[in-house]
Amino acid sequence: MAITATALSLNVADETTSAAWATRYLGFTEQMSAEGFVSLTHTESPLNLIFLRTGLSSFKPASAAGPADGLLVVFEVDDIEADYSRLRGEGAEIVTPIETEPWSERYFQMADPNGVIYQLVQWV
């Protein structure tokens, strides 16, 4: 199997607000969009971030069409302190301030307007 691209697709109540949040705070840009759908790309990451509005009739399988509860979107960064300071200063909702785990993971968490939790991490 040759994987040629990677995407993370999240079900949210309002796809446009999550896309705007990821654009503003994380540096993603819109690649394409349609009713109930926004796909974002990032110049420094091979990951496409996709937001789908919950309840879309075209969503398959229907059993997974609810919100993305309990999911962490994690990005590894080079300078956790600088990113934390910048994002706090820009008004991102920080839900977990910087912590360091015993296994040397330094991280903090933010929430977007739909409640998607983003974790930035640096290994120290």
UniProtKB/TrEMBL annotation:
SUPFAM superfamilies: Glyoxalase/Bleomycin resistance protein/Dihydroxybiphenyl dioxygenase
Top-level taxonomic group: Bacteria
InterPro entries: Glyas_Bleomycin-R_OHBP_Dase, Glyas_Fos-R_dOase_dom, VOC_core
Residues annotated as domain VOC: 2-123
Protein name: Glyoxalase-like domain-containing protein
UniProt lineage: Bacteria, Bacillati, Actinomycetota, Actinomycetes, Micrococcales
